[in-house]
Amino acid sequence: MKLQLALVLCGLTLALGQIVPRSSWCPVPISPRIPRLMVQVRLIIIHHTVTAPCFNPHQCQLVLRQIRADHMRRKFRDIGYNFLIGGDGRIYEGLGFGIRGEHAPRYNSQSIGIAFIGNFQTGLPPSQMLQAARTLIQIAVQRRQVSPNYSLVGHCQTKATACPGRHLLNELKKWPRWQPKP
């Protein structure tokens, strides 16, 4: 009975937006040489990873390691995103809060990047992913990492790209703080 209650409470905590720490998928700490964000950011930029989707913590952690390795091969300093949303509905810490990402040139110093794991050019992310992103945004505002008057945009609004996929972009346009321009 106690074990069942603990599992239910753990699931509830995750459903309420517990952020899975970077240390759960990456043994390498963030380099102190990566630039920090010194003020609340005003922009949230949404991406998709165009990788295989993931549906449980083990799969998601494998995909996270693959994304980081790809970013490092492309001469990024680390994984480029601040957070990633798994198909299991969990929020995975990439760089985390307060660290300047490498996800949207010209906008990195004034934004956080949230990537949905998978490809959303041909379909919409599952509802648990959408809810996790909404929860993460609430956490970011509550922790004063993002301005309450933030703007929400898709990566394609910052440069010529199909990211975050047309289906995800169309969904974002329905969200309260979506803006047509960054």
Describe the oligomeric state of these chains in a short phrase.
Answer: single chain
Strand elements, count? 6
Q: For this structure, what is the CATH class?
A: Alpha Beta
CATH architecture title: 3-Layer(aba) Sandwich
Which band does the percent of strand residues land in? 15-25%
Molecular shape: globular
Report the end-to-end length measured between terminal Cα atoms. Answer: 50 Å
What is the CATH topology? Lysozyme-like
Helix content range: 25-40%
Relevant CATH superfamily: Peptidoglycan recognition protein-like
Average of the residue pLDDT scores? 91
> How many separate domains make up the residues?
1
Uncertain runs:
1-16
Report the radius of gyration as a whole number of Å: 16 Å
Summarize the structure in words.
There is one protein chain. The protein has 182 residues and is of the alpha/beta class. It has helices at 2-15, 57-73, 127-142, 166-172, and strands spanning 19-20, 41-48, 83-85, 91-93, 111-116, 146-154. The chain has a single domain, classed as Peptidoglycan recognition protein-like (Lysozyme-like). Strands 1-4-3-5-2-6 form a six-stranded mixed sheet, with helices on one face. The radius of gyration is 16 Å and the shape is globular. The protein starts with a helix and ends in a 10-residue tail after the last helix.
